């Protein structure tokens, strides 16, 4: 098995010499691209037991789920954001909005992680929020303004020095002067066409008119796609405010994505969105619409210059729908197969907080979709957050993982039956 | 509760004496206003999300000035502009009083040498990121990306300040990241209003 993996990685390197030869290869990328050591030998390990873990387990006792389902602590992972489960099931990579990517390993396969350490510690990451895997084991990490590529990451992650390449060089995902810390948590997925799809949130509450031409050209406030050698970049989706979760329906190949809608219009409008895209270039309404069919004050009364696709599901206003995944496992009962599991981070300034839960969305044969809460209880009686779910990912056994960047944890939800 | 308030005011006067601030607002009212802030900045001013800074122990004048700038549009942020738009002068004074009444202390991480602190920054922000100039915010233990984002905003002109705009103008991306990494690595300790400090009776 190891021989196969090394072979795959070496082949990848040979096939992509351009990645290692950029004029301004940052940090240690050049060395890592040549399989040299950088001298960084220290991992940071996150303790998995103790009072902190016990506190999280106590919180989980109050989480409610449909009958037959259970939730437990899978791993303590600081600042845990979006997740990518390795296609071989060896390791789960977890992004953050800080400077670390965590590698989470369940070595004894008791479905509780027993090792959490930082991935590629010799690299300086900036908002490495979005990891995603190709089926053949290439890990991509979408950062604030760069996308890195790690061949055979499930094998190389055991060493501090991993083979690493630029897919999109620093400063070329968006123009550097457009960088922001807010709405800059990227997510990525490899589509059924083999291209990588990357979300690019726009940094404003409502994007101002003078930015719209640039944003349309670059794909800010949209989703872009490109070939996995970095060529052929194009804008796939327009009219998004800040999408931090997307996935492809394994049945139809269609892209579905969540979007976070405009603040400051009141507690109950505009609705959050779960969107369904059926062809390239569709426009989803921002900034003319603030969410659903609610028009923004800034563009009130103006003609909307595009045909706009309305959301497939209007979600609770301000609940902050983030990561999502289609369920393709067989552990859960029939009604959940093919459904969408998604995370609501929870509102940040609503009078009474809403969200902080896992939703499930059932898509009917005619394409209509309905959402309902699946796991909830992370808001206590004082309106205080005990956790804030970010992303949902599926393990090979058909259970699902839920990340939480407030508690700094990953939970596992499994089905035990009635 | 009365005892707590009295102690808190005592602490506040000490903090105020250092920077010449008079507490302009009401501590308890400020704690209630902080309900609007706590999802991101924490009720004690210790940030809960990496995009937000720690604000515990910042001078009243600093917090007031930033909130007023967000409210007027002089400083812009997708979330803070929405929040500040709805605040009255009294609410700003109260919430600034609340967060300022906390005490922030910082220490070097194990093995760090204070003389390696970025020379451009220490005159105002201190070696450990506890400001020594009332016009400057604390930087201790802020997320490095937050600090880098602010420095880049000063460099590009998106954010302006008579001293910081000039300092940031010529910084490279690598310098910005190095300075941000230094302060992000500090260990921050925050004490609530009225609580004895970490040094207890020895203080």
From TrEMBL, chain A:
Record key words, sorted: Signal
InterPro entries per the UniProt record, alphabetical: 6-blade_b-propeller_TolB-like, Glc/Sorbosone_DH, Quinoprot_gluc/sorb_DH_b-prop
A Pfam family reported for this protein in Swiss-Prot or TrEMBL: GSDH
Domain Glucose/Sorbosone dehydrogenase: 176-343
Signal peptide: 1-20
Keyword Transcription: no
Statement: the UniProt record of this protein carries the keyword Signal: yes
Chain coiled-coil ranges: none
PANTHER family reported for this sequence: LARGE, MULTIFUNCTIONAL SECRETED PROTEIN (PTHR33546:SF1), LARGE, MULTIFUNCTIONAL SECRETED PROTEIN-RELATED (PTHR33546)
Protein name as catalogued: Glucose/arabinose dehydrogenase
Taxonomic source organism: Rhodovulum kholense
From TrEMBL, chain B:
UniProt-recorded name of the protein: Cytochrome c553
Segment forming the signal sequence: 1-20
InterPro entries: Cyt_c-like_dom, Cyt_c-like_dom_sf, Cytochrome_c_Oxidase_Subunit
PROSITE patterns, A to Z: CYTC
SUPFAM superfamilies reported for this sequence: Cytochrome c (SSF46626)
Keyword Metal-binding (UniProt): yes
GO molecular function: electron transfer activity; heme binding; metal ion binding
Residues covered by the Cytochrome c domain: 25-103, 106-187
Alphabetized UniProt keyword annotations: Heme, Iron, Metal-binding, Signal
């Amino acid at each position: 098995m190891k021989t196969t993996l090394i072979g795959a990685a070496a082949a990848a390197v040979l096939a992509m010499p351009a990645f290692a030869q950029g004029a301004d290869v940052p940090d240690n990328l050049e060395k890592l691209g040549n399989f040299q050591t950088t001298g960084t030998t220290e991992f940071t390990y996150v303790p998995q037991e103790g009072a902190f873990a016990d506190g999280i387990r106590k919180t989980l006792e109050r989480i409610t789920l449909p009958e037959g389902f259970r939730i437990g602590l899978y791993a303590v992972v600081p600042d845990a954001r979006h997740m990518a489960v390795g296609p071989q099931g060896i390791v789960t990579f977890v992004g953050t909005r800080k400077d670390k990517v965590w590698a989470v390993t369940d070595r004894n396969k008791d479905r509780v992680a027993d090792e959490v350490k930082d991935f590629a510690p010799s690299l300086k990451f900036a908002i490495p929020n979005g990891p995603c895997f190709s089926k053949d084991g290439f890990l991509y990490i979408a950062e604030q303004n760069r996308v890195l590529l790690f061949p055979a990451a499930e094998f190389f992650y055991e060493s501090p020095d991993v083979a690493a390449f630029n897919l999109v060089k620093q400063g070329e995902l968006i123009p550097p002067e457009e960088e922001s810390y807010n709405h800059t948590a990227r997510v990525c997925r490899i589509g059924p066409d083999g291209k990588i799809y990357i979300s690019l949130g726009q940094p404003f509450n409502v994007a101002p008119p003078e930015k719209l031409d640039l944003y349309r050209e670059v794909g800010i406030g949209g989703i872009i796609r490109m070939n996995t050698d970095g060529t052929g970049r194009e804008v796939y989706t327009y009219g998004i405010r800040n999408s931090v979760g997307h996935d492809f329906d394994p049945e139809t190949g269609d892209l579905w994505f969540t979007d976070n809608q405009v603040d400051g219009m009141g507690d109950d409008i505009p609705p959050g969105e779960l969107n369904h895209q059926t062809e390239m270039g569709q426009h989803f309404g921002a900034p003319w619409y603030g969410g659903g069919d609610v028009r923004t004050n800034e563009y009130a009364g103006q003609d909307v210059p595009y045909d706009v696709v309305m959301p497939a599901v209007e979600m609770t206003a301000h609940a902050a729908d983030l990561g999502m995944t289609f369920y393709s496992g067989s552990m859960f009962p029939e009604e959940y197969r093919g459904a969408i599991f998604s995370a609501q981070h929870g509102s940040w300034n609503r009078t009474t907080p809403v969200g902080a839960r896992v939703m499930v969305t059932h898509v009917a044969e005619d394409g209509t979709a309905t959402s309902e809460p699946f796991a909830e209880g992370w808001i206590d009686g004082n309106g205080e957050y005990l956790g804030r779910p970010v992303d949902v990912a599926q393990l090979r056994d058909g259970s699902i993982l839920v990340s939480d960047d407030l508690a700094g944890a990953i939970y596992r939800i499994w089905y035990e039956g009635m | 509760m009365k005892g707590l308030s009295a102690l808190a005011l005592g602490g506040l006067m000490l903090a105020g004496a250092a920077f010449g601030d008079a507490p302009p607002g009401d501590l308890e009212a400020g704690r209630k206003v902080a309900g609007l802030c706590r999802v991101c900045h924490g009720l004690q001013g210790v940030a809960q999300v990496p995009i937000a800074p720690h604000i515990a122990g910042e001078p009243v004048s600093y917090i007031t000035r930033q909130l007023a700038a967000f409210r007027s549009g002089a400083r812009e942020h997708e979330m803070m502009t929405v929040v500040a738009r709805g605040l009255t002068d009294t609410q700003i004074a109260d919430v600034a009083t609340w967060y300022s009444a906390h005490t922030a202390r910082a220490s070097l991480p194990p093995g760090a040498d204070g003389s390696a602190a970025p020379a451009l920054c220490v005159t105002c922000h201190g070696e450990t990121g506890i400001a020594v100039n009332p016009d400057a915010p604390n930087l201790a233990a802020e997320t490095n990306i937050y600090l880098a984002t602010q420095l880049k905003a000063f460099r590009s002109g998106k954010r302006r300040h008579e001293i910081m705009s000039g300092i940031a103008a010529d910084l490279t991306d690598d310098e910005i990241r190095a300075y941000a990494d230094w302060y992000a690595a500090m260990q921050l300790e925050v004490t609530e209003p009225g609580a004895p400090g970490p040094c207890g009776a020895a203080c």
